[in-house]
Structure formats: C-alpha cells, structure tokens
Give the backbone structure.
Amino acid sequence: MKHFLLLPVFLFFMVFSLSAQNNKELSEDTTIIAGKMVIINDDEVLALDAENNIDSLLSIWYIQRALQDTSIFMQAGNYDVPEANLSDEVYIKRIKALPCIIDLPYNNVVRNQIIYYTQKMKEKAEMILGLAEFYFPMIEEILDIYDMPLELRNMAVIESALNPRAVSRAKAKGLWQFMYGTAKNYNLAMNSFVEERFDPVASTHAAARHMKDLYAIFGDWSLAIAAYNCGAGNVNKAIKRSGGKRDYWDIYPYLPKETRGYVPAFTAANYLMTYYKEHGLTPKQLSLPSHVDTFFVNKLLHFEQISEVIGIPVDELRNYNPQYVHNIIPGNERTYVLRIPYEYTAAFAENEKEIYAYKDSLYFNPNIIKQIAGRGAVSSPASGAQIIHRVKSGESLSTIANRYGVKINDLKYWNGIGKNNIIRAGQKLVVYGKSAAPKTTTTAAATAKTTTQKQSTTGKTITHTVKKGETLWSISQKYDDVTFYEILKLNGFSEKQKIYPGDKVKIKI
C-alpha cells in the first residue's frame, strides 16, 4: 500500500545478505517452496541497522516509543549476519510445519533474517513478541470476520513492528502503514483531532478489506502480499514484463527491489512468531489489562477529564486510544469510541455525566479548539463542503474535476494520488468546494423534489438485509454519512461482531 517507500514496519524484517560466506549450504539464487526448487536473482542487498538495548519495558507506551525511536533504516551493501546455529534442514522442516495456507519460501534471504532476529536482535524480537500478546487476538478476530488467513497477522509485524504509532519517512502511519490516499479509500478518518490510521481496530478492518481486494485481483496470496507493499499496479507491471506469468517467483526479478524481500520477510516473521521459544526468546512482559471495554462517545471529551474524575492515567488512555492525537475525542462531530481497561469500566459508567461536565469550559475553550484545528493532524484541504464521489467506469481525474469545478491538482492532493493519476471504478474520492455539488443543469422542480426527499429521510432508520460477503464495515460504506461505529451503537454490536447473510442491521440515514 503506500507502499514501497521506507516503512519502519517493513524495515524491521528487511535484512538481507548475499555474501558468499553466509551461503555455505544453499546457493544464493536458490529458493525452496513446498519442495520445489526455484531460481531467483537478487541484485541488491538491503539491511536494517538497529541498536538500542532497553533492560525493562513495562508498558505498551514505553515499548512503542522504544521501537519508534530506535535507529531503523535500510542501506545497500552486505550485512554481517551471525553464523547460523541451526542447519538449513531444521529451518526448512519448521517452516513446512507452520499451519499456513499461504506458501512460505525458504532461501538464504529468509535464513539470514531469521538468524539476525533470533540471534543478534533478540531484544527487539522480544519487544515485538510482547506486543503480539496484546494485538494478535484483536487482529485474528478481525481477520476471521473477513474469512482471511490468520497468518496475515504477521504482516503487521513486518509493516510496523506492531507499533500503532509508527510513522515512516514517507508519512505512512499506523499498525498497517497506510498512506493518506489508501486510508481515504477505506474510509479511515483523518482530521485535526483524529488519525484512524493509529487506531488498531479501525486500521485492521481497513487492512483486511484492502488485502481481500488485492486477493480478489490476483487470486494468489503471495502476489497480494507483494501488492500490499508496492501497489497492485507494480505487480501487474511485473506480470506483464514476465510474459504474463502469475507465480510470485516467476515475476520476482521484475518487482521493485524494495518489494522482492517482502514475501521472504513475511516468511521470517511467521517463523519468529511461532518458534521463538526454540531460540530462547521470551516476550517482554507488559502491564496489560485483562479486558478492555468500549464506550461510544457523542460529545467532546478530553482524556484529562476522564483521568481527573476516575483516576486512570492519561498515558493509559493514550495506550488504548492512540488515534486521538490531541487527547480529545471530537464526539460532537460523529460517534467515536473510547477504550478503557475493565477495572475502570464501572467508574466511567457511573460518573459519565460528571466526566463530560468536568472543567469543560477550560478544556474546550473555543480559542484552544480553533488553534488545534488550525494546526491539523494532516494537511488541511480546501475549505468548504465535502462529498464522497464514487468513481464510475470510464471516468478520469479530469472529468471528475471538471464536474465539480475543482482543479485536478487539488483533487489529487485531497486523495493522495501520485504522479500516475491512476483511479479505479468504485474508488471513493473526497471532493471539497463551496458547495461540493456537481455542475449540472437541474430544474427548479427537480431541485425541490431532491430537497424534499433529503428532508424526509433525515434521521430515518432503515433495515439493511445482509448479503453474502458483506461486513459491518463494508455496509457502512454503502450509505453516505454512516460510520462503522454508528452502526455498532445503533444495533448494540461489539467491534468484533460477525454477521451472516440474511441478518437484519439497522441503519440511520
């Protein structure tokens, strides 16, 4: 997705070494997949240099800061990988035994990554293992909702080292390292107060849907995983340059250099997260709650208000709600969620009115709110109304810009579209303008009819019958100004609610 730029997540497992001295048992151009020998030819070595030892990490916030602050970068050249203390036969046997439906390769690149993190970078591996105990159950439940292979959870390891606050040099953000445009396509909120790319739950829903879309395009998980990193367009180019071949290792030489190691990195991550005990690794012990509860927020709410009234530390609130970049939940705009540890649930419920009222004139001084909105968590688009335009077949940026009377460059900026100007049918584009209304010649009668229809349906609750393949998140995208969390609240669902064809879901339009 963002995709092939320097991503702190992706960086974590991109450790390559093609030095002949490290290839004693396998030649550097040989890959083994399910017993089949495949020839590869990698002409560049990418490496990770991370040096930071921390003796005691007790909180999620502390570990995330440690991972974010560590010097992590990619560089060309050979890397000094320690001598393997296991034979290739052992690695191959273990990888074949992994309970995965996705083909996992084994070659010198995979081996070197495994060796590096199980022998030289133990401290970092143990940090990730500790975070996995907190984030993996949530990720697995969401992947299960979308009927996705559970081993895809390990993509978050190579994307962000399981750090939901991760920010790459290219400004990809969050657990799944979404760039702005891709995040917009999957309806993640990004404004002065909220950055849902940092929300582990919302971003995992978006990542699952994005991976499902990529699999629908390629019909192969290795290709879909590669496309997650470099984009579907680059994978299609590689397929074309290979003469139409659709096996990952056939198109390997034609992929961007930064992407060639992505599937091997995925293999190494799966190995590490399964066999860490065999390498004497122990997950960092985190101070985690036994359970986290969710509250729906429909008013302005500041973390300090919650902390002062019920005693929960602000840092804990940040741990479980990293999407609120200024410690403010803008519930007056739409329904948002607050996640707090179970031991504070009763206190919050019993004191909710007092919490909202506590020093509200101080925390929500209009000048302070205006100042925050002016800074913005992301670049502010043009002022004016906003609509979401769904791209139709045959439309281009030029025709869409002309329809709404906006500049093409503005349309590209608002949606994070690159130089290639590529848009696809069904894609959602955000458009800003004085009225954000398309330039059409509408009769007075038609205008009056449209206005009447909108007024008559405002605040109306309808029933949506679930169709095959639909999820609550995908249903929310079918209706204007309807969010996933509003559907949850209206129906009394949890964030991990599963639905089935024929189920009835209430929607307020």
User: Anything to note?
Assistant: Residues 151 and 466 are 27 Å apart (CA to CA). The two ends are 32 Å apart (CA to CA). Confidence is low (pLDDT under 50) at residues 1-58, 69-78, 376-384, 439-457.
